[in-house]
Design brief:
The complex is a heterodimer of chains A (about 180) and B (about 270). With about 180 residues, chain A is mainly α. Chain A has one domain. Chain A contains three helices and no strands. The radius of gyration of chain A is 65 Å and the shape is rod-shaped. With about 270 residues, chain B is mainly α. Chain B has one domain. Helices cover about 65% and strands about 5% of the residues of chain B. Chain B has five helices and four strands, in the order ββααββααα. In chain B, helix 1 packs antiparallel against helix 2. Chain B is globular, with a radius of gyration of 23 Å. Classes of the chains: A mainly alpha (about 180), B mainly alpha (about 270). Chains A and B meet through helix 1 and helix 2 of A and strand 2, helix 1, helix 2, helix 3 and helix 4 of B.
Chain lengths: ~180, ~270
């Protein structure tokens, strides 16, 4: 440096400064080598490996953050999907309940109608059976009554009644009974 | 052995052996280099993804320095220049602090010269209290500065950065500006040439001044309590050591940023 200054026309001043401060080319070169050696060692054994580790760690952290963001995104999407599914399930459930309600109401109505019909049928059948029984009983009664009338008339009158007489007496007797 | 040959610390380093160009400040700078190398080697084989004890400290120091200088230089420049700025900072700092260890500059021997007269020669001298050391660092910085400046700008861009007019002009104004900026460029070249001198004398002056202050204060009182007046100044000098390491590296980083910055803020450089 002082050699440069000397070459630039400051020779006397530079030489004096060099003498006063003990600046010598040999010392200067030795210190340059010393300084360069320290820089090399630091670069080779400290800054290089540490910077490499720091870069790797930064990359890992960045990757982790990206993954976290992806997971968060997926979670949001999953929550949305779940919400949609739950909403759909609720709607389906409501629809099914309503359908079940409707269906049960219809079934109840149908069963009630069936029951009414059955009851009516039963009543009609019972009525028919009663009528039939009554008719049978009336026929039997008529028959018995006719026999009794014929027998009584025959015993009272002492005359055998033909079929027309029997028929006429029976009808008269029956109409008399029915009118009572 | 306590200092007896007066209380003025010499401006220059002493050669320890007459037959070997080895000075007491060189021993100190080797010691600083040895400490840095030892610490690096201790940490180098143990670097893991999950840091432990010493690696934590080493990472903290290096990452803090990286972010600090990265803030000045930007992502692109710091990647290629960190080894220089980080290394220089640590080397200057450790040298400055080693110079404060009691005994450095005060333990030595008295020499009688052939022509008469006596001189006290300390065994050790602060590494940065030697102009050879500070000028070596400055010159190395100017070498890498020139290399990086040309690498970033190209030879033509480097010359344009110094001499070419900034802004767009036309006509006679353009000719005038070319002349003016050429003259400014010459001043700029002088300023660039002065930088290593300024850097080396600033660091040397501050560190030498601090050691001289401590030396002088210790001679104000009797030997038995010589440490007492200097004690508060040790803390100041610890701070000065850190600040001077920062100043040296900050100025170097700013000089590099100015020449590699492609923006139109060239005028600021003249202020340094």
């Amino acid at each position: 440096m002082f050699t440069l200054l000397a070459a630039g026309g400051f020779s006397e001043t530079a030489a004096e400064i060099g003498r006063n401060f003990g600046w010598k080319p040999a010392y200067f070169v030795a210190q340059v080598i010393n300084f360069l050696l320290v820089l090399y060692v630091l670069k080779r054994f400290a800054f290089g490996p540490i910077q490499e580790i720091l870069e790797k760690r930064r990359a890992n952290i960045k990757e982790g953050e990206e993954k976290l963001a992806q997971i968060e995104q997926k979670l949001i999407e999953s929550e949305k999907t779940n919400a949609a599914l739950i909403e759909k399930a609720n709607a389906d459930a409501k629809r099914l309940i309503n359908e079940a309600k409707d269906s049960s109401a219809k079934l109840a109505e149908q069963k009630a109608a069936e029951a009414v019909t059955n009851a009516q049928n039963i009543m009609a059948k019972a009525e028919e059976a009663a009528k039939a029984e009554r008719a049978t009983m009336a026929a039997d009664l008529k028959k018995e009554f006719g026999r009794l009338v014929v027998a009584t008339t025959s015993q009272v009158t002492g005359k055998a009644l033909n079929e027309d007489d029997q028929k006429r007496i029976n009808e008269e007797a029956l109409s008399s009974v029915q009118s009572n | 052995m306590a200092a007896e040959g007066g209380h003025k610390l010499p401006l220059y380093p002493e050669q320890i052996f007459s037959w070997l160009p080895l000075t007491n400040s060189m021993v100190m700078s080797w010691l600083a280099a040895g400490i840095i190398i030892f610490l690096c080697r201790s940490a180098a084989g143990k670097f893991e993804m999950v840091p432990k004890s010493f690696q934590n400290v080493a990472e903290w120091i290096i990452e803090s320095l990286y972010n600090f200088f990265g803030g000045l230089l930007g992502d692109h420049l710091i990647k290629k220049t960190f080894w220089f700025f980080g290394g220089t900072f640590l080397f200057v700092l450790i040298n400055n602090w080693l110079g404060l260890i009691p005994g450095v500059g005060t333990v030595g021997w008295n020499t009688e010269f052939v022509g008469g007269g006596k001189s006290f020669l300390p065994f050790l001298r602060g590494g940065n209290a030697d102009l050879n050391m500070t000028s070596a660092m400055s010159v190395v910085f100017m070498a890498v500065w020139t290399f990086w400046a040309i690498q970033e700008n190209g030879v033509k861009g480097f010359a344009e950065h110094i001499f070419a007019p900034k802004g767009s002009f036309s006509g006679i104004l353009k000719i005038g500006m070319i002349v003016i900026f050429f003259l400014v460029g010459i001043l700029e070249v002088i300023s660039i040439m002065i930088r290593p001198v300024a850097l080396s004398f600033r660091l040397f002056g501050n560190i030498y001044g601090g050691e001289q202050t401590l030396e002088s204060l210790m001679h104000l009182v009797p030997k038995q309590i010589a440490f007492l007046p200097a004690l508060p100044f040790y803390f100041v000098e610890l701070l000065v050591g850190l600040i001077q390491a920062l100043v040296f590296c900050l100025l170097a980083a700013i000089f590099l940023n100015l020449i590699c910055d492609h923006g139109d803020d060239h005028g600021e450089e003249g202020s340094h």
